[in-house]
Amino acid sequence: MSKRDELIEKYADDLKSKCGVTPDMDLLKKVTIGCGPSIYNKDSSTVSASSKTEIDTVKNNFLIKKLGLSDSADLDKAIDSVLETYGKSNRNKYRAVVYYMLTTHFKKESVYK
């Protein structure tokens, strides 16, 4: 099993155990691949919920640029909702899991078809 496949399994487990979501494995794989090499770096593979800069990065680089959404308060609410679902006390919030949940929240799975 490749390192990427191992990470996808870890992300799927997080979605099931911490978020109560049964993942679409095909979509999760595509979202993970879309994250690029950041998934292999300890720092960039996670989202720091307490960092305003990090939240802005998720909003601008993923929601606006990747998913093509317009900047609005809904984006901030969705990010807060996803981070709340993932668990504020959960230290490691994997970027691919957060992106997956945001993709399904906004019903933008077609971006990864």
Structure description:
The protein has 113 residues and is mainly α. It has one domain (3-112): Recoverin, domain 1, CATH 1.10.238.120. 59% of the residues lie in helices and 0% in strands. The chain has helices at 3-19, 25-34, 52-66, 73-86, 95-105. Helix 1 (3-19) crosses helix 2 and helix 2 (25-34) packs across helix 5 (95-105). It is globular, with a radius of gyration of 13 Å.
Biggest beta sheet summary: none
Order of helices and strands: HHHHH
CATH architecture: Orthogonal Bundle
Shape: globular
> What share of residues are in beta strands?
under 5%
Task: Provide a count of the helices.
Answer: 5
Any low-confidence stretches, pLDDT <50, length ≥5? none
Number of domains: 1
Distance between the termini: 24 Å
Task: Describe how the helices and strands are arranged.
Layout: H1 3-19, H2 25-34, H3 52-66, H4 73-86, H5 95-105
Helix pairs in contact: 1-2, 2-5, 4-5
Summarize this, please?
The chain has 113 residues and is mainly α.
What structural keywords apply?
mainly alpha, globular, 0% strand, Recoverin, domain 1, 113 residues, 5 helices
